[in-house]
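Subject: for your reference before the review

Hello V.,

The reviewers asked for a structural picture of the protein, and I figured it would be easier to keep everything in one thread rather than splitting it across files. Below is the amino acid sequence we used in the manuscript, unchanged from the supplementary table.
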Amino acid sequence: MDLLLLVALLPLSWISYSIYCLIHNYREASRLGIPIICVPISPDNQLWIALQTAFPSLFKRLPFDICAPTRHCRLGWEFRDRYKTHERLGDAWVAVTPWRNWIYIAQAEAAAEVYARNRDFAQGADWQRQRKLTATPFNEQKSPLVWSEALRQANDMLHSWLSHGPDGITATSEDVRTLALDVLAFAGFQKSYPWQSQQTMRERTASTYRDSLAIILQNVLIILVLPARFFSMPFVPKRWQQVGWALRAFKKYMLDQIDDEKRSISDGEAGSKTLVSNLVRAVENQQSTVAGPGSQALKPLSVDEILGNIFVFNFAGHDTTAITFTTAIYSLVAYPEVQDWISDEINFYLPDDDSSTWQYEKTFPKLQRCLAVLVSPTTLFRLPLPQHTTIIQ
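And here is what came back from the structure prediction:
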């Protein structure tokens, strides 16, 4: 009886605590003087995200759209809602959840001011330290490498698509994700792989660094919720055991790269110029850097922090790039006149069909129409960006 009572009290306690937090956050949001929508579950609740990811067909049948509170609980509600809530409530409104309050702004000037004051919203000294130490690896010197590898991967993908003949393909988004992953692997880790369709990749056994990273990115939401050791337990499905292999393989590869780079630094050798190399060397170079007058040198990143940042770079770079390209391709299909518009630019600046002769420094700055087509999806659709990270043990 006592055990049954305890089991019944646990969910009741959680519900009571959630209601208390929701009321507290509502009072805080009321001070803003803008419209409020109360949402019973935070959109970044990890367990809620994992359930929707693991059982998508079940959640698609649930009537989320019956009212505003439930509508904003759904994963990816922003894409479906677009401007409707702003049209109803105004340029700014706040979603009150038990975990945190979310302010949504549809006014360009206000949004620009928020971004301009990003330091005011930084999460303490440790956030500033992470930002300073991780900014160095990203510079224009990487762009020619990304350009050449992206051209090679895109050519391979194009030949694969054309080989299907009039029947065409039905895996555009999956194939573009593969392209983004391959370019990311080369730019970040100097690992070059031949482009393969998603169907080909599914038919073979995963064994490479790219395979492990692809599996992690495909299951990232579940990985953020469940402990890493769970995926290695014998009773879990084979698909999740593969996730466990990917986590172990990816971490081992990263640790080996970090050790090799530290050894190169101690021996006075040149780095490999990969993302790991640049990040480790930036940390080493900053150990003696003084943050300001009278202050101490910045604390270097730990191995776990380096691994966490590498994971975030991969997740952010892969997902946003793949979604942007996919949306741009579908938009071009819907607007043939835009295809002609950018074709004129490409044919003018790149008359030679041999892409190996296309130089980044001379060509990329001129392709303004192509850039406009790629930027448009980011203004029309909300692209996901990671806001939190956890250490994978």
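For the response letter, the relevant points are probably these. Strands lie at 36-38, 92-96, 101-105. The chain has a mean pLDDT of 79.

Happy to draft the paragraph if you're swamped.

O.
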